[in-house]
Amino acid sequence: MTKPPRQCGECQLCCKLLPMKEIAKPAGKPCPQQRHGKGCAIYPTRPPGCRLWSCRWLLDADTAELRRPDRSRYVVDMMPDFVEWVNNETGECTPIEVVQVWCDPHQRDAWRDPALLAFIERRAEEGKAALIRWSARDGMTVFAPTPDDPQWHEVRSESVGHEHTAAEKYAAVKAARRLVGLALLLAALLAAPAAFAQSLPLPKTGQCPAGYRDSGACAPTSDRERPAIPKPAGRQCPSGWSQSGSYCIGPIPETKPQPLPMR
Ligand code: SF4
Ligand code: SF4
Q1: Ligand found nearest the CA of 20
Q2: Above pLDDT 90, what percent of the chain?
Q3: Which residues 6+ apart lie within 8 Å of 129 measured at CB?
Q4: How far apart are the C-alpha atoms of 251 and 261, rounded to whole Å?
Q5: How is the chain split into domains, by residue range?
Q6: Which of 91, 95, 139, 169 can pair with 133 through a Cys bridge, CB separation 3.0 to 4.6 Å?
């Protein structure tokens, strides 16, 4: 049984920064179920959104240089997400894969942490940008330098858009990865001043992983607790995850890192 490399300890930042629709909890506000020093008051019956969410700081070896989220004041989502560049002249939509970073709205520049910038630069090598989010609708897409463009770029969104479902995220990954490199996308984006980033649902491609149903996209079954992400091309699944077809499946419930364990 593989243990996660890091532990939550006293951190509860995900329960403050992330929105949780099932309990009408907005982003950036403490959850009413949080209990200082104890964790989640309803942990055994917490909503599906809480069960499905996974913390990249806990699970990904490439976050080893990042501080614990309650000290850095940002949370990196394990699940890939997307923004869409819309060319307002042609109407053409181009998906861009992003790593979501939920940042404390009271410390808006926390994401400028050099360790996180280095992490975002490594993601750029994989063709990904970063979506910095201060709330469900207030965000900014950040592009790290590429060999063709040595500058950082920050593109404010008019609106980040609706919160993607897990099925939308799974389905969107493959489509975005078929596209041209980030440098070309960025060049096109910067050439269009009216461009803005917004949300993107896409249809499913390929066979859904175990525990997920095909409903035009890969939708987790209602009682499913294990998270899943598309398996990164040429890379292993994260430590503690297993492969299911072209997906990586997170730890089973008994071994899943518990964001807010009862103490
Ligand atoms: S999962 Fe744990 S370490 Fe990650 S933000 Fe939540 S409480 Fe902090
Ligand atoms: S895990 Fe518990 S405390 Fe955290 S957001 Fe969900 S319900 Fe709230």
Answers
A1: 2
A2: 28
A3: 83, 96, 97, 98, 99, 120, 123, 141, 142, 143, 144, 182
A4: 16
A5: 14-208
A6: 139
- Going by C-alpha positions, the residue among 56, 60, 92, 74 that lies closest to residue 194 is 92
* C-alpha to C-alpha distance for 182 and 45, rounded to whole angstroms: 41
The alpha carbon of 35 and the centre of ligand 2 are apart by a number of angstroms equal to 10
At 84, list the tokens.
């869409």
Is residue 230 very low, low, confident or very high in pLDDT (cuts 50, 70, 90)? Answer: low
The residue assigned the tokens 């099925």 is 167
Q: Name every residue whose Cβ is closer than 8 Å to that of residue 155 and which is 6 or more positions away in sequence.
A: 140, 141, 142, 143, 189, 195, 196, 197
Tell me: the pLDDT tens digits for 107-129? 999 999 999 999 999 998 888 89
- Whether pTM exceeds 0.85: no
Closest Cα partner for 263 from 14, 11, 39?
Answer: 39
Cβ atoms of 158 and 103 within 8 Å: the answer is: no
Pocket test for ligand 1, best of 14, 31, 60, 102 (most atoms within 8 A of CB): 14
